[in-house]
Amino acid sequence: MSWQGSWKRRGEWLEVTPGKALTGSDNKEEAALVWMQNVLGMPDKLLRKLRHEKGIQVAGDRLRLSLFKEAPLGIEPRWFELEVLYEDDFCLVVHKPAGMKVHPDGSREDGGVTLDHAVASYYQMNGLEVPVRHVHRLDSDTTGPVLYAKNDFAQAILDEQMRAKTIGREYAALVEGTVSPGLTVIDEPIGKDRHHNQRRRVSPSGQHAVTRVSLGEVLHGASLVHLKLETGRTHQIRVHLSHAGHPLLGDVLYGGPAMAIARQALHGELLIFRHPLTGEAITVEDPWPADMQELYQSLKLI
């Protein structure tokens, strides 16, 4: 479901022109509700909220929806220089650096700046009163793009895309050994490791997990692989590649060799999602960070 027509933001209001869906109906308000559900994919809960708050206005052939109402950030702003990869009125995609959590998780290590804190600061500095809501997460030491929803409507649509597994996430990893071109998919369930609180492991009683693998290049004692996730289990790529005999370089938790990179050599290089309103396919690329580039160059075969 998507809106292929033109739209404008006017303050807190989104203005669209549904066309015959309104002009061809005697009861325009009822027609607007049907159009919002069938074309925009507006969730029932949000539709009820908009009706209750008088956030739906019909004027002639125009429909105005109060989608951009100001609301608290929900988390303390803490400044950190963000790298913004994509932004509009509905979505924000930012680069997550290594060593930064996406959000506070209540652990003893909390207290520093997380990506959510930094996004709150970015919103504040740009005069936005928008709740900070990430759509997906990355491990603390994994770099790459993280998607944020900037209003209730965007969050509902993007959360549904996550549930339907239609948000594409592609990664690059530097792993130990020579990966066979025949290794194209790892379909192994993942569960908790009873002997180590932080670890996960392949377990028959674990959750379904599928990682697609593509060999990019054979390096000196290592390989560059590109990966696509069909599921999003904790540490999925790290567990699957370790299980396949090719742990990530620097990933000592899962048997990888210690390297100068001082973290697992894993980077999210591509994020693909459909725009919440228009349905347009948005592709966001995130260039490799310096530590991955340096490690790759040091491993290239001469």
From TrEMBL:
The keyword Isomerase applies. CDD domains: PseudoU_synth_RluA_like (cd02869). Residues 92-243 form the Pseudouridine synthase RsuA/RluA-like domain. Its EC number is 5.4.99.-. Keywords: Isomerase. The keyword Isomerase applies. It holds the Pfam family PseudoU_synth_2. InterPro entries: PsdUridine_synth_cat_dom_sf (IPR020103), PsdUridine_synth_RluC/D (IPR006225), PsdUridine_synth_RsuA/RluA (IPR006145), RluA_PseudoU_synthase (IPR050188). GO terms for molecular function: isomerase activity. It catalyses: a uridine in RNA = a pseudouridine in RNA. It is an enzyme of class 5 (isomerase). Responsible for synthesis of pseudouridine from uracil. Belongs to the pseudouridine synthase RluA family. This is Pseudouridine synthase. It comes from Paenibacillus lacisoli.
